[in-house]
Design brief:
Helix content: 55-70%
CATH topology of the largest domain: Rossmann fold
Distance between the termini: 24 Å
Strand order of the largest sheet: 3-2-1-4-5
Length: 183
């Protein structure tokens, strides 16, 4: 599976005690060099460096055609009041995910809104850390025997990353995990 990562996701995930599992979920994770330049925290820089050395994280070769898609997306997003403003690197991630069919890894609400509301980007699959943890359970990278064990994994992530997931999203994901465990 192919992924595209933004800075918000990588910064949070770099603090997680099981952060190395990300490399087991994806064959390759693409990143634009402008996203890499956003990383400042030592844990994020260290984690990105480790992934680059292992060949999992790869810099995406940007083209003129993709720059044109970025400009078009930037202009369209600016006109939609449902979508909060986004920085250039965030929009670059969306273009890469659309062009490659990769899963976009993000914690950015603006990106999630683009995927929700923009017709050309509605086919982009965007996962937050919560969906990544869910997928790791389904693929056997994290073993759980109950919803409670899954919630413990999520709590562990929240504690490490200092991140809180909405109760609505938690309910949706735990419902899917419950159904998967009951199969």
């Amino acid at each position: 599976m192919l992924g595209v990562v933004d800075a918000c996701f990588l910064i949070d995930w770099s603090r997680y005690r099981r952060r190395d599992l990300l490399a087991s979920l994806f064959e390759a994770i693409l990143m634009h060099e402008e996203v890499l330049a956003q990383l400042r925290s030592p844990s994020a820089v260290d984690f990105a460096s480790c992934l680059l050395v292992r060949g999992v994280l790869r810099l995406y070769p940007w083209s003129t055609a993709e720059e044109e898609l970025y400009i078009q997306l930037r202009d369209e997003v600016a006109l939609d009041p449902r979508i909060p403003s986004l920085e250039r690197p965030d929009l670059l991630c969306l273009v890469i995910a659309r062009r490659t069919g990769a899963v976009l890894l993000t914690e950015n609400l603006g990106i999630l809104r683009v995927v929700q509301f923009h017709p050309a980007y509605s086919r982009v699959t965007a996962w937050t850390a919560l969906e990544v943890l869910e997928q790791m359970v389904y693929r056997g990278l994290i073993e759980v025997g109950s919803v409670e064990e899954f919630l413990n994994i999520v709590s562990e992530y929240c504690e490490d990353a200092k991140h809180v997931f909405s109760s609505r999203r938690m309910k949706d994901v735990t419902g899917r995990v419950r159904a998967w465990l009951g199969r």
